[in-house]
Amino acid sequence: MNIESNDNVVELFSNPPPICQDEDFLTLLENGEDYIIYVRNYVTSQEVILVSNNIMNRLPVELRPMTNVLFACNFHVLKQFESEIRQYILLESNSLSLFYHFFGCGLKDFWKTI
To answer: Distance (Å, rounded) from C-alpha 26 to C-alpha 11?
Structure first.
């Protein structure tokens, strides 16, 4: 076995390759370990929102889904974090333009649609 060969070396400390090249995401909220991230996968035509454990635990028990992944039918639970998301989007550069790109509306109209 040639130890010098790079063919069999597994890079354990590099960034993992993206799972899918046809996927975009928008961070709706990030505060330390707390996060809410919108993900759009174009291949599967699927939209999901990923939330941290801390965010999930802040939801009322009756609004908590089984996993930390929210599908479109669960997007309404984001209303619990409306003011935090609004503030984050408005303060982060490019976030507002990406928000318009993904949702086709502004923040005010977005909350009316979910």
So the answer is: 28
In the 8-state DSSP scheme, what is residue 31?
A: E
pLDDT in tens, 21-53: 788 899 999 999 999 999 998 888 899 999 999
Among residues 31, 25, 73, the alpha carbon closest in space to that of 50 is found at: 25
SS3 35: strand
User: Which residue positions in the chain have pLDDT lower than 70?
Assistant: 1-20
At 96 the three-state DSSP class reads helix
CA pair distance 2, 6, nearest whole angstrom: 9
Burial of 29 per CB tally in 10 Å (0-12, 13-18, 19+)? buried
Structure tokens at 76: 């309404």
